[in-house]
Amino acid sequence: MYYQDILHSQREFFKTQKTKNVKFRKIYLEKLRDLITQNEDVLYEAINQDFGKSQFETYATEISFILKDIDYYLKNLNSLSKPKKVTTNLSNQIATSKIHSEPLGCTLVIGAWNYPYQLTLSPLIASIAAGNCCILKPSEMAENTTKAMAKIINENFPSDYVYAFEGGIDETTEILKLKFDKIFFTGSTKVGKIVYKAAAEHLTPVTLELGGKSPVIVTKDANMEVAAKRIVWGKFLNAGQTCVAPDYILVEESVKEQFLELLRKQITEFEYKPDSEQYTRIINQKNFQRLIQLIDPKKIYFGGNYNESNLYIEPTVLNNVTWEDNVMQEEIFGPILPVLSYTNFHNALNSVLESEKPLSAYIFTNNDEEKDLFIQKLSFGGGCINDVVMHLGNDNLPFGGVGNSGMGSYHGKFGFETFSHQKAILDRATWGEPDLKYPPYSENKIKWIKKLL
Ligand code: NAD
Asked: Best label site of 46, 118, 156, 404, fewest CB within 10 Å?
């Protein structure tokens, strides 16, 4: 079906006001939950075909997130969608003031391939919860998962309410010519700019969930074993193809050797084998070729092996890396972990500040002053102290970037707000009003208005 036909039908459907009914939204959230659970095996199979992701990781990092999101909104939708009473200032008395969350209308969600279910369906869930219609455009790079999602959505949702289009750059370019009321994009900073420009044509608000080089600082006051275990897990999860994965490590020089040894031990213990259930493949040849170019053989501390036939790259740690190395010039988005060292904590923070604002940043330390400086000095989307990646699992925290890593946020109530307009209503009594603001003005009125305002 043509994109504009679907959008037109969604616009007509939105006008019926049906999506504004909270019960209606809940019915479709429940329906989506049932569809996900009924089709769990189909979803596992599709993602396994796309990049060999295991059932365990798919459940832990995708399906469980989606089900949790649905449950969150089913539980909280009544209170989220209720008008919020706020105080009324003196000059507006006698009145009540309320903020009404209203749906934006016709929304577009463009997804990335690396967590294809979560990154497409979580924004959809927030959009439905907020009372919108929605067009989905999952990533063509995860072909089988995109097909699976499109089939599930298009066979079970009315197309004038929710519809999924398959397609790549050409199709997305066409879709982006249309006027939406909100675009929610997850992907690279480069394409984020294209989406932002297209949205500007129609003054469409956007949320851009982008990427960047997320640093991990490890100081001498860290618990080294815990740091190594958590970093290795977060880095090699999904073979490093995670937007919030640690991109590189900045470790204090005095503990570097000890820390490198712990990284080696941890990677070995986690048994990341080719074709094993523990370890995901690289999504495609193009990314595989890009990644192996980033491995400087002279700097390999651990790993460095790869196999083109099954798109396997061994977890690889690079040592003695400098800011000038190729691996430090772009977001890695793969299982290569460069380690740089520092001797002065302030200089370490300053070197992070030299780069674009990352999506995430992490610090491992038990020193409170270092924790405070890390939070105060660096600007980044979100992050953890003494952990990596896990902040995005807490729905009470907004998830999103800043600067080059994006704008806007979602998860929990933030997702609801992202897909809503906050409409301000002042409801004024028709009695009890002094004549102060009305002409004719006088010296006496100025005196009183100065006191009042
Ligand atoms: P991408 O930008 O290449 O693609 C994302 C989407 O944009 C896809 O649906 C694709 O079809 C579409 N697209 C690609 N080129 C386009 C063009 N020229 N015009 C219009 N549409 C186009 O990103 P990707 O490779 O899927 O994902 C990797 C990037 O996404 C990384 O930078 C990663 O950090 C980031 N990412 C961010 C988050 C987040 O939540 N912030 C999550 C996952 C990935």
From this structure: 156
Amino acid letter, 17: Q
In order along the chain (453 residues), what is the average pLDDT of each group of 10 residues?
Answer: 93 98 98 98 95 91 96 98 96 95 98 96 98 98 96 98 97 97 97 98 98 97 98 97 98 98 96 81 96 98 95 96 97 98 97 96 98 98 98 96 98 98 97 89 92 83
Residue 1: predicted pLDDT: 58
| Strand 95-103 with 84-86, pairing | antiparallel
Q: Which domains does the chain have, with CATH numbers?
A: 2-210+405-425 (3.40.605.10), 215-400 (3.40.309.10)
Q: Is 384 a catalytic residue?
A: no
Q: What is the pLDDT of residue 278?
A: 78
| Catalytic residue status for 271 | no
Q: How far is the CA of 41 from the centre of ligand 1 (A)?
A: 26
Angle 116-129/22-38 helices, nearest 10 degrees?
160
Ligand 1 in reach of 402 Cβ (< 6 A): no
- The CA 7 to ligand 1 mean position distance, Å, reads 22
Separation of 139 CA from ligand 1 center, angstroms? 8
Residue 243 CB–ligand 1 contact under 6 Å: yes
Pairing of the two strands 95-103 and 420-428: antiparallel
SS3 110: strand
pLDDT of residue 433: 85
pLDDT digits (tens, 9 = 90+) for 254-274: 999 999 999 999 999 999 887
Atom nearest to 209 CA in ligand 1:
41
Q: Tokens in use for 249?
A: 């490590």
For the Cβ of 261 lying below 6 angstroms from any atom of ligand 1, the answer is no
Q: What DSSP letter does each residue of 361-430 carry, written as one string?
A: EEEE-S-HHHHHHHHHH---SEEEES-SSGGGG-TTS-B---GGGEE--BSHHHHHHHTEEEEEEEEE-S
Cα separations (Å) of 141 from 49, 310, 332?
Answer: 12, 16, 17
- 387 φ/ψ sector (left φ>0, alpha ψ -120 to 50, else beta): beta
Q: What is the secondary structure of 170-220 as a DSSP string? A: HHHHHHTTS--SEEEEES-HHHHHHHHHHHHHTT--EEEE-----EEEE-T
248 lines ligand 1 (CB under 6 A): no
